[in-house]
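Q: Can I see a sequence and its folded structure?
A: Here is a first one.
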Amino acid sequence: MRKKKMKQIGVLLVGFCLLLSGCSAKQTSDQTENTEEVQRYAWPLGTSSPEDTVTQLMAERFAEEVERLSDGTMKIAVYPNSVLGGDRELLESCKDGDIPFVVQNTAPQVTFMPDTAVFDLPCAFDTMEEVRSHVDDEQFLARIQKVYQKGGYELLGYADQGFRVMTTNDKVESIADFKGQKIRTMENSYHIQFWKLLSASPTPMTFSEVYIGLQQGTIDAQENPYETI
């Protein structure tokens, strides 16, 4: 990839990661072991995010709490970096009961649960404090949990990753500079439309393809929460 200084510009989209469990009754404790006559059950938890993110921290903390509360008889094995599949595959597998736990961003879920688009409202807040005051509200949590239950999931918790940020190999100093920029987005119609309204050229792409896409010039830019970048 050409060694150009990466430019950054903030956009008022918020990244969220959620911990989901599938509602399927399918037996998932197919991986067991006997240790000192104590039966341990091991369940996989899949994410598509790198290890050094809020997503991984949430997954690891969940695994620790499950093991602690079960006195060591239950174990969660965390698989990051799309090892068990991309966002769409993880969501489908979780609903089917093949992967009992998933931590992922809300953006890919809109296709399956349209009401989750509430997390994709652009430019609705100025600060993260405002965002948190709304999403931490108990009534909001109860309503969004019903959305997931209707979709076939149990929403166990969520955390924000801050505002989404654009990085690009091309200079951006005004709205006009967005024109024609080939930017990688998640597979979400609202994200795509947002960038089209800025005259950019959005391209849905899995995160694992972003680096090679920037190297080969398939894309000029990408957007993600800052910690992911």
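Q: Show me another, different protein.
A: A second, unrelated one:
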Amino acid sequence: MLDVDSLRERLKTRIVGKSSIVYYDEVTSTNDVAIDLCKRVGAEEGKLFITDYQTTGRGRYGRTWVAPLGKCILATVVFRHRLKQEQVHLPNLIGALSIAQGIHAITGLSAKIKHPNDVRIEKLKVAGVLTEIEYDLHRQPFFVLGFGVNVNISKDELPAELQNTATSLRIATSDKDNNEICRLSVLQAILEKLEEHYLTLKSGNIPLIEDSVRLWEEE
């Protein structure tokens, strides 16, 4: 189980995860519970939802996201910035960028963005982002940025149909060190990068985001 108290103490952020962190042992999906709460009672910007297991995790186009219990990072952050029509694609990109940079910072692995919302290591998917835009009980727009990262899944825990297309941080580092990777450290690194890029989005400096993404995109 992720140590939420340690995460709260370690996070060097002003928005993401600072107002509230909600942890679930098991949930349908973190995006689902975040959207439901915002619609019913509202939720402050930066509220973070984390779980160790999703029963109906999903990606783009309703694709299933498979995540064994306690082996992945499964999280959603609530954001309140009102996106312009030409900006609706950017949350997925800043999410993927933050994941790639967070992975590299903790593991040294060369993670790359596959447009618009996947992160891959050596062409194998290790993480994905799902952004959903909704309206709260006051009819104010918000969006939730959900992401999943395969951290400590072993090769034999990957479903057979995914073994040629997916990987995990543990698999990708197996030649160097077969120990489990600290999910808390990876999550912290991702969230701190996510806040950095979200604040850039709010400032309107879109070219800076696009330039940063290009540096991390697959060739």
